[in-house]
Design a protein that fits this description.
The complex is a heterodimer. Chain A folds into two domains: 256 residues, no CATH class; 243 residues, no CATH class. Chain A contains 23 helices and no strands. Chain A is globular, with a radius of gyration of 25 Å. Chain A is mainly α. In chain A, α9 crosses α10. Chain B is an alpha/beta fold. In chain B, α3 packs parallel to α5. In chain B, β1 and β2 form a beta hairpin. Chain B has two domains: 215 residues, 3-Layer(aba) Sandwich (Rossmann fold); 59 residues, Alpha-Beta Plaits (2-Layer Sandwich). The chains are: A mainly alpha, B alpha/beta. At the A-B interface, α13 and α16 of A face α2 and α3 of B.
């Protein structure tokens, strides 16, 4: 079988390259499972709270759309399966997509496959090794989920079934990614195609689950959720992914045979012969480089706002009878529960927008180290003009994301409440996170100016700290000084808390200081290429 | 003639590495100046200091009458640069990059842009991701050559070009020179430098070891002589400045230092000169001589600076 020559060697090499990232994915899955299991066992330990949950979530279209079919909600284990299966599936699919694409199309695009193929490596070896690695990693993730669930006190049989069902979606998407990697010649294109198919699988399944029609059977996520872990414990739906995955892999191999190495089956569209007027100064360039990413973020954030806003009405019935959950959605106990819930969701989205702000700011560093800043700065463009343009796109982009999140949340909330002022109120609450997001982006900018080689990891470390504080500080009752380190925590959780100008002004001053420091240090230092 | 670039005693260190160690460079208005040296000798570092991308540690640097660090933006309106390793934005087409760079520099000639695309046989509609190394270099070259810049700074601009494009490049540089513009051309390809350059500077370990016109450099170095004489030309080895002598009965081959050429020729005439061929050193030989001690694994210590 000369086409497969060298698969073992390539696989060992791939394992070595992924020896850090794969364990992180697996650990994240186990941690998600453990946290969900222990918090649900805590919240719904009384039959009354469980009944209230069942009455609310089981009849709420938005929560069914987000989670899955409302089965087995008469047990705590059933609520856990209901709430955790979507996040686990998402995690597994992302891992499978990145792992498969990284060792197939990404290597090929970078020219590494060509070098290896010139040695004793068969045509199918990279594809075979990459999909084997991805399938094995999905299986490991499934086992880790099963272990975490069992250890948290859930029945072992259902735990194993949930793990296997989650892994099965990873296998299907390993096959889908393998096919997509043959279609387009660009790694980002593979991610776009697979991401689109993931979204489609999610929507098809959501519509099927809400309408109760058989449409969920058209989605690989629907197959996994049809196993109903800890209630009916059905194994037979997993026959579907087991049948489809090999077909997808065979299809990918056939497509691989019918194309040239280095190219995809879909030919890229040619670009423009001349630049549009907008592509002129450094700002035009920064906008051109960031606009498609920003657009994708905008779509995602707007959708999220609609879903979160739409869920708000059900929160009333869901939480009204559950004092423990009221503690989770913290704040003034007398405050409107809905506002409290909306305050938390707006903060979580602001956290995601902060991630955009940091990554958009770090774009300057990748432009610089890849040598693409050099020809621009060798033209009549000042250091501050170039750096400032990217920062402006990052800050304005993040603000735009907060605005569209607020508008979407407000609009879908107003549709349910019939109160049009909700739009303004929630938009204001979302946009009030702008100074906090600017502080994080500004910190990344200051680091890039002052310490370019360590800047990107340091900026993400700071973001990670804010993420941990935002998600866990309240629940674990950490001291106030820890919480105060996070600019997000310093922003009032409007609309639950009353809006205050002073903390926002402080954050604005800090952001301005950090941005000035970044610009000043970047102007004075050597350009760091490579 | 006034100097467009004047560098003296330039020092640049990166941590403990001394990349530039007192480098001198003088480029006069209207000339094509070759900037020669092997990898790691400091050519690109010098160019980056000239462009204000790196900050000097010591020495004086003047570019177009200004300070390249302080006056970077003003000076960059008057120059165009082609990096040694051209990286472009993968999703932007070559034509768009050419226009962008032209606009960032403050203008280009659209007629010349079209003509250069034709001459370099470059498809401007392809996304930069799909260009080969040579095509990326052509994008940067077209952008630079189509500009109205009075100074072109080219860092190994032809390392990815095929021989036909190399010839196109040479004719473009001749046009640039005819327009009275100035070119600083760092290069590995000595035949190219020999064909194009009015003057060259050879650098080594961050220092300038030789600088001047090719004629001046040749006078400073050795000429290869092959001669046939009526009588055996004995005693050549006792003359000063004669190296690498090989003699058969009536035929001698040797190298002689420029300032001892006359004495050696007189000696040959005395022996009854029958035929003579002399070859001035090529740039390649000049260059290799500067680096002779690195090339020679052992012996031959007479070569070198």
């Amino acid at each position: 079988m000369p086409d497969q020559t060298g698969t073992g060697t390539f696989l060992r090499f791939a394992v070595r390259r992924d020896r850090v990232r794969l364990p992180i994915w697996v650990a994240a899955g186990a941690a998600l499972m453990a946290v969900q299991s222990s918090s649900n066992q805590e919240f719904y330990r009384t039959p009354e709270s469980l009944a209230a949950y069942r009455a609310s979530a089981g009849s709420n279209a938005a929560s069914i759309a987000f989670s899955g079919p409302p089965v087995g909600l008469d047990t705590v284990a059933g609520t856990i399966a209901f709430e955790i299966s979507s996040p686990l599936v998402l995690l597994t699919v992302l891992m499978a997509m990145f792992t498969t694409a990284r060792h197939t199309r990404a290597d090929e695009e970078a020219g590494r496959t060509e070098l290896l193929r010139s040695a004793q490596l068969g045509r199918h070896a990279p594809l075979l090794a990459a999909t084997a690695l991805s399938a094995a990693a999905s299986a490991l993730l499934g086992l880790a989920i099963a272990a975490a669930a069992t250890l948290s006190g859930l029945p072992a049989g259902g735990s194993l079934l949930l793990g296997a069902a989650t892994a099965s979606v990873g296998w299907v998407f390993t096959g889908i990614t393998a096919v997509c990697a043959q279609l387009t010649g660009v790694t980002r294109g593979v991610y776009g195609l697979v991401g689109g198919l993931l979204g489609l699988s999610f929507v098809v399944r959501a519509v099927g689950d809400i309408t109760g029609s058989g449409l969920s059977w058209a989605s690989p996520i629907g197959w996994a959720q049809a196993t109903h872990p800890w209630s009916e414990d059905r194994w037979w739906p997993l026959l579907l992914p087991l049948a489809v995955t090999p077909l997808l892999l065979l299809g990918a191999a056939r497509l691989l045979d019918s194309r040239d190495s280095g190219s995809g089956l879909l030919q890229p569209r040619p670009g423009a012969e001349a630049a549009p007027p907008s592509l002129a100064g450094p700002l035009g360039l920064a906008w051109r480089l960031q606009r498609s990413t920003l657009l994708a973020w905008g779509l995602g954030v707007t959708l999220l706002g609609f879903v979160y806003g739409g869920l708000a009405e059900s929160v009333k019935t869901l939480l009204g009878d559950n004092p423990d959950a009221q503690v989770f959605f913290r704040g003034d106990p007398t405050a409107d529960l809905v506002d409290s819930y909306l305050g938390v969701t707006l903060r979580i989205t602001a956290l995601m927008v902060a991630a955009y702000g940091v990554s958009a700011t770090c774009r300057t560093r990748s432009e610089e180290s890849a040598g693409r800043a050099e020809p621009v700065l060798a033209a009549a463009v000042s250091r501050s003009g170039w750096f400032g343009s990217h920062l402006l796109v990052a800050l304005a982009g993040a603000t735009g994301l907060l605005l569209s999140d607020g508008l979407a949340t407000g609009a879908s909330r107003a549709m349910a409440s019939g109160d049009a002022t909700d739009v303004l109120r929630l938009t204001g609450a979302a946009v009030s996170y702008a100074p906090a997001v600017w502080v994080l982006a500004g910190l990344a900018g200051a680091l890039i100016g002052a310490a370019p080689s360590a800047a990107v990891p340091a900026a993400w470390l700071a973001f990670g700290a804010v993420l941990v504080i935002t998600l866990f500080a309240e629940g674990f009752d950490w001291p106030a000084w820890v919480t105060d380190l996070s600019p997000l925590s310093r922003t009032p959780t409007a609309p639950a808390e009353s809006w205050a100008a002073e903390p926002l002004l402080v954050l604005l001053v800090v952001a301005a200081g950090l941005l000035t420091l970044g610009l000043a240090t970047f102007r004075r230092r050597d350009l760091a290429t490579g | 003639m006034s100097s467009v670039i004047s560098v003296s005693g330039l020092v640049k260190t990166f941590g403990r590495t001394r990349a530039l160690d007192g480098l001198d460079l003088d480029v006069r208005a209207g000339e094509v100046h070759g900037f020669l040296g092997p990898n790691g000798s400091g050519k690109s570092t010098t160019i980056r200091v000239l462009l204000g991308l790196l900050r000097k540690d010591a020495g004086t640097v003047r570019l177009l009458g200004g300070d390249p660090w302080r006056d970077a933006v003003l000076l960059h309106r008057r120059l165009a640069y082609v990096p040694g390793d051209v990286t472009l934005w993968p999703t932007i087409s070559g034509g768009e990059v050419i226009d962008l760079l032209g606009r960032l520099r403050g203008g280009m000639d659209p007629r010349r842009r079209a003509e250069l695309l034709e001459r370099f046989d470059l498809d401007p509609r392809k996304k930069a991701r799909t260009y080969s190394k040579g095509n990326r270099q052509k994008v940067a070259l077209v952008a630079a050559l189509a500009s109205d810049a009075e100074l072109l700074v080219l860092d190994e601009p032809t390392s990815g070009l095929d021989p036909i494009m190399e010839a196109t490049f040479q004719s473009c540089i001749s046009d640039v020179r005819a327009d009275g513009r100035t070119v600083l051309l760092s290069s590995h390809i000595l035949a190219e430098a020999e064909a194009l350059c009015d003057r060259v500077s050879i650098i080594r370990h961050g220092r300038t070891v030789q600088s001047g016109t090719l004629g001046e450099l040749r006078r400073l170095t050795r000429t290869s002589i092959t001669a046939e004489t009526v009588h055996p030309a004995t005693g050549l080895d006792t003359l000063p400045g004669v190296h690498g002598l090989r003699a058969t009965d009536h035929r001698v081959t040797f190298d002689v230092d420029g300032d001892h050429l006359e004495g050696a020729l007189r000696h040959l005439t005395d022996a009854g000169l029958r035929s003579l061929s002399s070859a001035p050193p090529t740039l390649e030989e000049l260059f290799l001589r500067q680096y002779g001690d690195e090339l020679a694994a052992a012996g031959d210590t007479g070569i070198g600076s």
